[in-house]
């Protein structure tokens, strides 16, 4: 038997209806700018006349001598008073010490007498003992008086010592005055030496040389200030740039950290989405339809849709048919052979009773095969209800009971009778394929997998037989008048035992049985008595292969998204680490720049101080030059005044030392 000869179709007249398609921080720094005035003492200093200068110097020297003499007189008086006080205190101390020494001697003598009296008492009579005791008591009283005398004398000694200490303090003060007088005498002598050099003329060249040197030093100091200030300005700029670099590096770290957090959040979200997609696929896989489903090319779908809309009277009808045949030729290869299921193979079916146990599962599988095809066409899905199952089972059993041979066509009378008995006006469509030819005895030696394979291969025969297309349009739901209608399906199995030696030209053995699968379709408009036909659809919780494929694709996309998110996190972490390193480097550079800035400003301060010192040195050198350039009379007068001043200072010095010697004495 060939596939093309093993299918039959019974179709009733249908009312045509319209088709309905369904588819599925900067640090602030500053530099103190020292405004230096290039002062040339030779040009800007107001020089007094030499005579006036000498007069002033002489007046100042006399004033110093008068002040020194007055201070020396007061110091001498203080020293005399201190010496007198010290002499009196020392005399008092000496007397107190003598009194104390005598009191101590008396005390020692008295204690010796006590010991002797005690020794005598130890050997005396009662009278002598009493006398001795009285003598001892008298002596103890005398000893107490002597001890008080010692204490009083010691107090006098302490007071005298305090007076001596005060006198020593006075001596120290006088020593300080003497030291000051020494310094004044030395300074006066130096003034004499200088005045002598000026008078001799030996200081003139040295003064000019010193002035030139001082002016050169001042010029160099000012140059150093300018250079130091430029260096400080550069250091300020470097510090400012370094601070900006640190601030920018901090911003970069913050941005990188935020980007990393965002990337991490996206990774978590992507992983959660992947986990959800995995769970959805796992859950769907537990309810997955049989993997043997018919998959159609778009070319076939378009060709069958065109055929469903065509009429034999159309001018291009044959072209439509030829296009469908051409499209069909590729579908057999595309859908391959049936892949058996080990679990279904393990379920043995050896009798009609065994087969009836699995009619519900076989109805569901047939429904899945049909609906998978209809999903690809976008047509109405078929339902299975207890009513449709009952119609299909009764038709199959009735055809078996009458040993109906489908070579003679559909048994329309039996099908019509059963349909009406179940509250239907008629049976809409009936698609039959000769599924199995088998020797059936007490043991059929068949499995549930065999019957599912028969349904799968029957579906291929309906769609791709290449001879007629009513079965294809019936299964696909594309026939005019039925698109968009609610439809139910009931499966039946017909067992036919040929009576001859051949069946459809093929030899048959005695007892060989031809098993046919019968798909019975019932549309909503045929239901007349709902009390006899249970139309409530039995839910099919199985998941179609298309859905499984979509879930697999979704999981794959989610995994790719997770991988991409993980890569983004890794890149974000690398960028954050790089930003952190850059920040650390910028902070080190800032510390270095600030240190250089501090040193540069210290150098500016030091240079400014050098300018000030050089300015003072120039002024002093200019003064020396002015003195050296004075007239001889002025120089001689200055020398005479200096000598007079040194004599006065030496006189004061002698007086201070005399006072000091007296105070020490």
Features:
5-stranded mixed sheet; alpha+beta; 665 residues; two-stranded antiparallel ribbon; 70% helix; 7% strand; disordered N terminus; elongated; single chain
Q: What is the β-strand count? A: 9
Q: Count of helices? A: 16
Report the end-to-end length measured between terminal Cα atoms: 160 Å
Q: Which spans of ≥5 residues are poorly predicted at pLDDT below 50?
A: 1-48
What structural class do helix, strand and pairing data support? alpha+beta
Give the overall form.
elongated
CA-atom Rg in angstroms: 68 Å
SSE pattern: EHHHHHHHHEHHEHHEEHHEEEEHH
Helicity, in percent? 55-70%
Strand order of the largest sheet: 1-4-9-6-3
Main β-sheet description: 5 strands, mixed
What is the oligomeric state here?
single chain
The mean pLDDT is 83
Strand percentage: 5-15%
Written description of the protein model:
The structure is a single chain. By secondary structure, the chain is α+β, with helices and mostly antiparallel strands. It is built from 16 helices and 9 strands. The strands form 3 sheets. A 5-stranded mixed β-sheet has the order 1-4-9-6-3. The chain has a two-stranded antiparallel ribbon with strand order 2-5. Strand 7 and strand 8 form a beta hairpin. It starts with 6 loop residues before the first strand and ends with a helix.
Secondary-structure blueprint of this entry?
Blueprint: E1 7-11, H1 41-44, H2 50-123, H3 126-200, H4 203-286, H5 298-309, H6 317-329, H7 331-335, H8 342-346, E2 348-349, H9 352-357, H10 359-377, E3 382-383, H11 386-401, H12 412-421, E4 429-439, E5 446-447, H13 448-464, H14 470-476, E6 487-496, E7 502-503, E8 506-507, E9 512-523, H15 545-628, H16 632-664
């Amino acid at each position: 038997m060939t596939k093309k000869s093993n299918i039959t179709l019974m179709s009733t007249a249908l009312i045509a209806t319209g088709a309905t398609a369904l588819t599925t921080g900067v640090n602030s720094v500053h530099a103190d700018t020292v405004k230096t005035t290039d002062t040339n003492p030779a040009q800007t200093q107001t020089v007094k006349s030499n005579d006036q200068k000498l007069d002033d110097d002489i007046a100042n020297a006399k004033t110093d001598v008068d002040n020194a003499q007055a201070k020396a007189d007061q110091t001498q008086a203080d020293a005399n008073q201190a010496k007198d006080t010290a002499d009196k205190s020392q005399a008092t101390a000496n007397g107190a010490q003598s009194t104390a020494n005598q009191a101590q001697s008396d005390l020692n003598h008295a204690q010796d007498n006590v010991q002797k009296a005690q020794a005598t008492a130890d050997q005396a009579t009662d009278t002598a003992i009493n006398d001795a005791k009285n003598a001892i008591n008298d002596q103890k009283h005398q000893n107490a008086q002597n001890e008080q005398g010692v204490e009083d004398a010691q107090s006098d000694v302490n007071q005298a010592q305090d007076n001596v200490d005060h006198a020593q303090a006075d001596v120290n003060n006088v020593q300080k005055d003497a030291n000051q007088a020494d310094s004044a005498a030395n300074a006066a002598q130096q003034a004499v030496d200088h005045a002598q050099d000026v008078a001799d003329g030996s200081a003139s060249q040295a003064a000019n040389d010193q002035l030139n040197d001082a002016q050169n030093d001042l010029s160099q100091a000012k140059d150093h200030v300018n250079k130091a200030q430029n260096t400080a300005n550069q250091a300020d700029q470097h510090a400012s740039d370094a601070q900006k670099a640190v601030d920018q590096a901090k911003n970069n770290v913050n941005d990188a950290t935020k980007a990393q957090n965002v990337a991490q959040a996206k990774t978590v979200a992507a992983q959660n989405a992947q986990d959800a997609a995995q769970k959805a696929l796992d859950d769907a896989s537990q309810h997955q339809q049989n993997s043997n489903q018919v998959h159609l090319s778009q070319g076939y779908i378009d060709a069958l849709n065109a055929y469903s809309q065509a009429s034999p009277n159309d001018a291009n009808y044959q072209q439509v048919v030829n296009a469908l045949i051409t499209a069909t030729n590729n579908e057999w290869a595309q859908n391959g052979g049936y892949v058996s299921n080990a679990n279904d193979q393990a379920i043995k079916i050896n009798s009609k009773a065994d087969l009836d146990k699995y009619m519900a599962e076989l109805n569901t599988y047939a429904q899945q095969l049909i609906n998978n095809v209809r999903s690809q066409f976008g047509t109405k899905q078929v339902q299975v209800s207890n009513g449709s199952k009952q119609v299909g089972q009764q038709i199959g059993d009735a055809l078996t009971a009458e040993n109906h041979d489908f070579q003679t066509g559909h048994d329309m009378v039996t099908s019509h009778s059963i349909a009406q008995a179940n509250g239907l006006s008629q049976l809409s469509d009936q698609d039959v394929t000769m599924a199995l030819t088998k020797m059936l005895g007490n043991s059929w030696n068949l499995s549930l997998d065999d019957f599912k394979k028969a349904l799968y291969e029957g579906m291929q025969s309906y769609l791709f037989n290449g001879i007629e297309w009513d079965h294809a349009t019936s299964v696909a739901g594309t026939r005019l008048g039925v698109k968009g209608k609610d439809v139910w399906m009931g499966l039946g199995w017909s067992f036919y035992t040929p009576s001859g030696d051949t069946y459809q030209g093929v030899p048959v053995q005695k007892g060989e049985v031809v098993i046919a699968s019968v798909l019975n379709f019932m549309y909503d408009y045929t239901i007349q008595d709902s009390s006899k036909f249970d139309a409530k659809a039995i839910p099919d919780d199985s998941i179609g292969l298309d859905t499984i494929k979509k879930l697999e694709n979704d999981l794959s996309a989610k995994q790719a998204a997770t991988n991409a998110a993980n890569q983004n996190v890794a890149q974000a972490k690398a960028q954050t680490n790089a930003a952190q390193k850059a920040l650390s480097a910028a902070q080190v550079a800032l510390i270095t720049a600030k240190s250089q800035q501090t040193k540069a400003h210290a150098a500016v301060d030091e240079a400014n101080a050098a300018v000030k010192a050089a300015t003072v040195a120039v002024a002093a050198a200019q003064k020396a030059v002015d003195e050296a350039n004075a007239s001889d009379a002025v120089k001689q007068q200055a020398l005479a005044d200096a000598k007079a001043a040194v004599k006065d200072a030496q006189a004061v010095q002698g007086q201070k030392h005399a006072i000091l010697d007296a105070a020490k004495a």
